[in-house]
Design brief:
It is a single chain. By secondary structure, the chain is mostly helical. It is built from four helices and no strands. The chain has helices at residues 2-14, 41-56, 63-76, 79-142. Helix 2 (41-56) packs across helix 3 and helix 2 (41-56) packs across helix 4 (79-142). The radius of gyration is 31 Å and the shape is flat.
Length: 143
């Protein structure tokens, strides 16, 4: 009897509070035009390793198995064996940095244009406000 009562209490104590996605601090929305980060040397290796592994084991569809086998092989490599993958990764990183600079430059130009447009809109509204004030003062003079 006591066991059933305490079991209910234990469940309420052990329950995990789930947070809704709205409560989590999500940063600014991701820009789909932003270039993707380049893969590390390990992921460059895994691209090639996956193809080889699938040829040798065509029936294996498990991502985990391929990942474990790739990780074990990568750990067994010496630095000399890893060198070609590191070079490919460095080359991709250099390309990424070039495209990222171009992207950032484009974004900065777009931001400046938007700011200038907003400024011109503000100045137009200020001019219109001045005109409105003049019209109002004419009406006051007529009284």
């Amino acid at each position: 009897m006591k066991g059933t009562k305490s079991k209910g209490k234990a469940d309420s104590k052990l329950s995990v509070k789930k947070t809704t996605p709205a409560k989590r601090g999500k940063g600014a929305e991701k820009d789909p035009n932003k270039p993707k980060r380049p893969p590390s040397a390990f992921f460059v290796f895994m691209e090639e390793f996956r193809e080889e592994y699938k040829k040798k084991h065509p029936g294996n569809k498990s991502v985990a198995t391929i990942g474990k086998a790739g990780g074990e092989k990568w750990r067994s490599f010496s630095d000399a064996e890893k060198a070609p993958f590191v070079q490919k990764a460095d080359k991709r990183k250099a390309e990424y940095e070039k495209t990222l600079k171009a992207y950032n430059k484009k974004q900065a130009e777009g931001t400046k244009a938007e700011e200038e447009e907003e400024e011109s809109d503000r100045s137009k509204s200020e001019v219109n406000d001045d005109e409105d004030d003049d019209e109002g003062s004419d009406e006051e003079d007529d009284d």
